[in-house]
Amino acid sequence: MNARYDFEGRTVLVTGAAGGIGQAIVEGFARGGARVLAVDLDPQALQRLVEEQLALGHEVRGEVLDLADPGAIRALLAGLQQLDVLVHNAAYFPLTPFTEIDPALLQRTLAVNLGALFWLTQGALPLFRRQGGGCVLATSSVTGPRVAYPGLSHYAASKAGVNGFIRNAALELAAFNVRVNGVEPGMVRTPAMDNLGDTALNARIAAGVPLGRLGEPADIAAAMLFLASDTARYITGQTLVVDGGATLPESAASL
């Protein structure tokens, strides 16, 4: 990630912050001088991240939070004095065949992936309005809006909803100078990717990506930093696909 944006004086909240894409996003904003509030459900991983960033001289603190709990989200946002960029990156996606999806699984998937985006944005809006503007970013996915993946019907539905949220929230919040955008990652080399459990399929997909590799967390973080920066100040209601060309019509990865 060579580009360095200036986020000095800004406060950034990142969910799903303690590993993979979320960690790369935290690191990118911290390098740019932002004060970062890293939110995650895993206290040990979160503590490691915070300690690493503090050792580098970055201003990062952690908050353990279950994003399926709207009340906890409201309490977290109510306790902040400043927020300039909100990044909802956390996601829940246990690989489950369609016929085995039960109400509890679907409810938690929608609560974490989609519902939390509503409550985080609603909670941030008073801060944004007081400050004269803000930026909301969401990690969506190509799965759902553009392609399908076996065992991820619940996840795909939630991410299609995220894209709908981005467009409509951008329209409604523009009056408050709040921009809303997202990034749609393709297959990214993270620990969570291994949880999908089909390494042969993952390898085949990677081989078919036009750019010849899987994505790295830093690739997604770079797109987030761009969208949060002043360079993107006239962009809202959009999602940026970062997939190495995998969803192009003639890509072997899409066949």
Report on the architecture of this protein:
The chain has eight helices and seven strands; from the N terminus they run E-H-E-H-E-H-E-H-E-H-E-H-H-H-E. Helix 1 packs across helix 8, helix 3 packs parallel to helix 4 and helix 4 runs parallel beside helix 5. The chain has a seven-stranded parallel β-sheet with strand order 3-2-1-4-5-6-7, sandwiched between helices. The model has no long low-confidence stretch (mean pLDDT 94). By secondary structure, it is an alpha/beta fold. It is globular. The chain has a single domain, classed as NAD(P)-binding Rossmann-like Domain (Rossmann fold), CATH 3.40.50.
Task: Put the structure in a nutshell.
This protein has 255 residues and is α/β, with parallel strands linked by helices.
Tags for this entry?
43% helix; 255 residues; Rossmann fold; 7-stranded parallel sheet; 7 strands; alpha/beta; 8 helices
- Widest beta sheet: strand line-up: 3-2-1-4-5-6-7
Instruction: Quickly count the helices.
Output: 8
Q: How would you sum up the major sheet?
A: 7 strands, parallel
CATH topology: Rossmann fold
Q: What is the assigned CATH homologous superfamily?
A: NAD(P)-binding Rossmann-like Domain
CATH architecture: 3-Layer(aba) Sandwich
Note the beta-strand portion.
15-25%
How many domain modules? Answer: 1
Mean pLDDT: 94
Distance between the termini: 30 Å
